Amino acid sequence: MNHLRVVMWLLTMMALLVVAGYSLATPLPPNAIPLLPVLKKEILQHWPGLNPRSTLGALVEQESCVSLKSKRCWSPRAELKTDREYGFGLGQITITKRFNVWEETKRMDPSLRDWQWDDRYRADYQLRGIVIKNRNTYAQMSKLTPRRIDRLSFTFSAYNGGAGGLIKDRTLCSKTKGCDPTRWSGHVELTSFKSRTVVKGYGKSFYAINREYVKNIMSLLPRRQKYVAALDS
User: Fold this and answer.
1) pTM for the full model?
2) Average pLDDT in the 16-31 region?
3) Which of 67, 62, 61 is nearest to 213 (CA)?
């Protein structure tokens, strides 16, 4: 009977840990293991105030991993090519006919200015670009809300859908009864000019993609919990 009680206690504790957001069974993607120390180094050097740092691990997974077993998961050579855009690397840096995020990011910090097109697959440059671009956006969002969790949510929404789109969504929120434009969850999250029509080739609407993007990065599950030990300690 005592043995049975121990087993039941262990099962209960495992269930509680999973509910709390700690996965006991999901391993790190293989390609992430050598790159996580690089990402942590870039964060500590270029955005030491980021909290939690594991959000950027979740961002890389969100951008590059169709599945955790995919060869492009956490691969600096991951690429997306459509008629609309070209994206490459761990952060899927995007280039379209209208804008070039790669060139934009390089101008944000002197340490990126020597990044050449032929070296676009260098993981250290890609991770540094992710850190610096989100750091700069976060600084901009600090003017829009006093709360860290909302600044981060705004930042990641902007990384996925553009800062201009985020500003427009906040404006719509400000004109919507009961909506607080300084808050993400339950407020700006629900108001958007983004299309809610499923887009061919994406399987979801741009609105659904953007809101899922923020949720997957900010929540412990399904992504961020894997990177807590490596990045937040």
Assistant:
1) 0.87
2) 62
3) 62
Q: What is the structure's pLDDT at 14?
A: 47
Residue 71 to residue 134: CA distance in whole angstroms: 25
What's the rounded Cα separation, in Å, for the pair 145 and 141? Answer: 7
- C-alpha count within 13 angstroms, C-beta hemisphere, residue 202: 16
182-204 pLDDT tens trace: 999 999 999 999 999 998 878 89
